[in-house]
Amino acid sequence: ISKGPGNSKSAKSTVVPPGPPVYLDLVYIPNHSNSKNVNVEFFKRVRSSYYVVSGNDSAAEEPSRAVLDSLLEGKAQWESNMQVTLIPTHDSEVMREWYQETHEKQQDLNIMVLASSSTVVMQDESFPACKIEL
């Protein structure tokens, strides 16, 4: 019996196992920033100057408050206080509440959240956008 991608049962989750950190310039937080795949260990290991936070589905808890809190906890354990920029793709209620409630801690950890109200308009469609310069 062959198992297709939809039939296979996976372990509890695909969180990042413990190990040495990996440094990147830009990271898209997986699975629309859902806490099933991202935890504190992810942010302790996957260290980036920029993290893109997508998700705009409160029913599916995306983005997850737990993921945003994990960023703070994981970043607090880095040896350096390098600046980190968080780039939300949507203006969600979860993001706004987290930003307001943890703003002081974000500043202490040198985390900046980009708030972009830029919109790209192309022919018959428009979508939110954010310019990233590395």
Automatic annotation (TrEMBL):
GO biological process, one term: dendrite development
Source superkingdom: Eukaryota
InterPro entries for the chain: MAP1
GO molecular function list: actin binding; microtubule binding
A Gene Ontology cellular-component term: cytosol
The name this protein goes by in its record: MAP1B protein
Organism per entry: Ardeotis kori
